[in-house]
UniProtKB/TrEMBL annotation:
Protein name (database record): Lactoylglutathione lyase family protein
Top-level taxon in the UniProt lineage: Bacteria
Signal peptide stretch: none
GO BP: L-methylmalonyl-CoA metabolic process
InterPro entries the record matches: Glyas_Bleomycin-R_OHBP_Dase, Glyas_Fos-R_dOase_dom, MMCE/EMCE_epimerase, VOC_core
Natural source organism: Leeuwenhoekiella aequorea
Gene Ontology molecular functions: lyase activity; metal ion binding; methylmalonyl-CoA epimerase activity
Residues covered by the VOC domain: 10-157
Length: 170
């Protein structure tokens, strides 16, 4: 029997594997405005430090080095970028019907300007900008890709406002 009240956990960070860590840091800092809190660094496989052992625990033994960088959004969510020298460098196939991470979402009230900047840095706009409630609320959304083929979504308003009372009904 449940005896303690559950509470919503905070989102700490998301890890994204990219083919070129320098280009990814440039894109995410210049286009998204995310703060670089740790410049790209080389991690080597070793068991002498807690970080080295943790990476072996997570990635196994089939690696020697990788690059990592840490960024942060305006509300403190971390973006952990990884680049593995022996990894596949092509974008993953977009298949939202399969189990797994489908996308992440960012929020910007000037969706048109952000999409324009994403495209100018080599990303793609995957669909037209759509309005959730064209007659009632100015909420817009759009799916895009970064230059590496990673799909994400843009909202103009917060998640709570977008899906609050009566989100899909009148």
């Amino acid at each position: 029997m449940k005896t303690t009240k559950n509470y919503p956990k905070a989102f700490s960070h998301i890890g994204i594997t990219v083919p070129d860590i320098q280009k990814a840091v440039e894109f995410y800092s210049e286009v998204m405005g995310w703060y670089t809190i740790m410049e790209p660094s080389l991690v080597k496989k070793e068991k002498d430090t807690a970080i080295g052992q943790m990476c072996i625990d997570v990635f196994g033994d089939d690696w020697e080095t990788f690059e990592i960088a840490h960024l942060a959004t305006s509300n403190g969510v971390g973006i952990e970028l990884f680049s593995f020298p022996n990894g596949v460098k092509e974008a993953p196939e977009f298949n939202p019907f399969n189990t797994g991470l489908f996308h992440f979402c960012v929020q910007d009230p000037n969706i048109e300007e952000l999409i324009e900047k994403i495209v100018s840095y080599g990303g793609k706009q995957r669909m037209p900008i759509r309005e959730y409630y064209p007659e009632d609320k100015p909420f817009k959304m759009c799916y895009v890709e970064d230059p590496f083929g990673i799909v994400f979504e843009i909202y103009t308003h917060s998640y709570e406002l977008t899906y609050s009372s009566g989100a899909y009904s009148k």
